[in-house]
């Protein structure tokens, strides 16, 4: 994989952000909560409470944090466990 400061990595990152935003917009319009795992940035962004095509809650969790689905709050998901890096 390219080094974090290389042009290839920056281009990948920019495209990832554009695709993730587009997906989140579509999911919000459809009323679907959305989780986006950013492997390069080592974080998980959780979009919840879709209303009127937007999310009223967007929280980013670092690789040191855990998050639980609203439907199963007793099940914690550690962000670092999802990252292959």
What can you see in these coordinates?
With 85 residues, this protein is an alpha+beta fold. The protein has one helix at 7-30, and strands at residues 34-38, 43-51, 54-62, 66-67, 77-78. The strands form two sheets. A three-stranded antiparallel beta sheet has the order 1-2-3, with helices on one face. A two-stranded antiparallel ribbon has the order 4-5. A hairpin with a 4-residue loop joins strand 1 (34-38) and strand 2. The longest helix is centred in the N-terminal third of the chain and has 24 residues, at 7-30. The mean pLDDT is 83.
Reading the helices and strands in chain order gives HEEEEE
Q: Overall 3D geometry?
A: flat
In round numbers, the mean pLDDT is 83
Helix content: 25-40%
Poorly predicted spans: none
| Secondary structural class | alpha+beta
The number of helical segments is 1
State the end-to-end distance: 11 Å
Q: How many whole angstroms does the radius of gyration measure?
A: 14 Å
Largest sheet: 3 strands, antiparallel
Quaternary class? single chain
The main sheet orders its strands as: 1-2-3
How much strand? Answer: 25-35%
**How many individual domains?**
1
Q: In total, how many beta strands?
A: 5
For this entry, give a set of tags.
85 residues; alpha+beta; 3-stranded antiparallel β-sheet; flat
At a glance:
The chain is α+β, with helices and mostly antiparallel strands.
Q: Topology of this structure?
A:
Layout: H1 7-30, E1 34-38, E2 43-51, E3 54-62, E4 66-67, E5 77-78
Antiparallel strand pairs: 1-2, 2-3, 4-5
